[in-house]
Amino acid sequence: RFGTAAVAEEPIAPPVEINYTKLLINGQFVDSASGKTFPTLDPRTGGVIADIAEGDAEDINRAVSAARKAFDEGPWPKMTPYERSRILLRFADLLEKHNDDVAALEAWDSGKPYEQAANAEIPLVVRLFRYYAGWADKIHGLTVPADGPHHVQTLHEPIGVAGQIIPWNFPLLMFAWKVGPALACGNSVVLKSAEQTPLTALYAAKLFHEAGLPPGVLNVVSGYGPTAGAALASHMDVDKLAFTGSTETGKAVLGLAAQSNLKPVTLELGGKSPFIVCEDADIDEAVELAHFALFFNQGQCCCAGSRTFVHERVYDEFLEKAKARAMKRIVGDPFKKGVEQGPQIDSEQFEKILGFIRSGNESNATLECGGGRFGSKGYYVQPTIFSNVQDGMLIAQEEIFGPVQSILKFKDVNEVIRRANASKYGLAAGVFTKNIDTANTLMRALRVGTVWINCFDVFDAAIPFGGYKMSGTGREKGIYSLQNYLQVKAVVTPLKNPAW
Ligand code: NAD
């Protein structure tokens, strides 16, 4: 029913070998202290791709000691910023050279279409590292015109050992958002990848060492959240924590940071982003972008446009076209050409999404298309649309993180502002209108970290990203991310001759 690319009977073997499965600590690939491993699974089949060394608290201790030593004894924070910039640039070049291998690993481990990884995500990662390489030698303090006979200046210093916990939906992109600014500012890092997608962080960390990164500056520990992740969040010798994932886990890591050493925490959490289609919008374009806003990456985006608000005058036309578009979506093996949608990440997410679809049916939203599993193996879900969705329904309130579009009707701009803002989340919004006044009103009234006007999911290394409300705290990317990884030191010197 959905598209032309049937799921291959036998998945195509991804054109890449897996060479790195151990933990990367102090510049060396090592087994976990316990000797334990865990399997990383192929979402196309549920089969094992590889067994990965399973880090836990003891490995986090080893990694933090290495990062501490690399920070306290150097050379990394003491190298010239230009030398640090050169290493980041060399890494970006190496990653670009290995683009297709890394994209294949990413697609295999996460189920995302290979073409998406190869043509969009990995190039964006390369771009991010070049962007932050550019910042490395442009970070500096100010002189401050204080009252009295004092010379006052600020030093912008690296914060120290950064602990970073990332999710599985954009594994290497999240690695880049975290590692890029941290290293550009001269910090050392311990990164815990998501247990579902450990492969590309290990590969990238290996390339970083090839690029000349000193040992201990970037350590990657694969493993589970409640063990390795919690140990990192509560570690007394970690100076800063950055986390992307669910709001629930975000609360937990914030608590662990508070109960340990009060390390500052940045959080990129969930969302329930409104996508608002006004009556004067170009409907064909709005349909296509609303489709992209929700279904991109199998619906597994924190900023997914998961509440599609459509003005009542264009609602019927929009719905009919949105449904036709979803029915044409090409679902299939992520390694097949032209595939738009692969499998969900794992059985847990797959079941959770099917649960939300049941809830949509039970709450009397109208199921327009989809509504079940796609194919007979792996974690594929049919592109699904509910219309007549009401604000109070679970599917309009909770993050589904799957290919399920909810379409809601509205009558006027003030009403849609109120309803769009009536969410515990505030990550992003899409606004579709040709009227500059409507665009300006909505852009200012929406309590979200990003407003895309007549576009969606425009990501660029320089554009900050982050949430209001329970979507998180702090901003990543752009100049704003540097603040997360710097301490500001005020230095005051008396002036002996105040006349000068
Ligand atoms: P999660 O938040 O539990 O996992 C994200 C990361 O946190 C992983 O690396 C995980 O190992 C780690 N983690 C888990 N528990 C931890 C703990 N107690 N201490 C420290 N680290 C911990 O997300 P999930 O369970 O993989 O997915 C659940 C839901 O989260 C999804 O359905 C989706 O709604 C949401 N999610 C959001 C994003 C996002 O980008 N905002 C990404 C992934 C998942």
Q: Specify the helix fraction band.
A: 25-40%
Distance between the termini: 80 Å
Summarize model confidence as the mean pLDDT: 96
Number of helices: 15
Could you give the order of strands across the largest sheet? 14-15-16-13-12-18-19
Radius of gyration of CA atoms, rounded to a whole number: 24 Å
Low-confidence stretches: none
Question: Can you characterise this structure?
Answer:
The protein is an alpha/beta fold and 500 residues long. Helix content is 37%, strand content 20%. It contains 15 helices and 22 strands. The chain has helices spanning 57-73, 81-97, 99-110, 114-136, 171-184, 199-210, 225-233, 247-259, 283-295, 315-327, 347-362, 394-397, 413-421, 436-445, 480-484, and strands at 23-25, 28-30, 37-41, 48-53, 143-144, 150-158, 161-165, 188-192, 218-221, 240-244, 265-268, 274-277, 307-311, 366-369, 384-387, 404-410, 425-426, 428-432, 450-453, 468-469, 472-473, 486-494. The strands form 6 sheets. Strands 14-15-16-13-12-18-19 form a 7-stranded mixed beta sheet, sandwiched between helices. Helix 3 crosses helix 4 (114-136), helix 3 (99-110) runs antiparallel to helix 6 and helix 9 (283-295) packs across helix 10 (315-327). The longest helix has 23 residues, at 114-136. It is globular. The protein starts with 22 loop residues before the first strand and ends in a 6-residue tail after the last strand. The mean pLDDT is 96. The structure holds nicotinamide-adenine-dinucleotide.
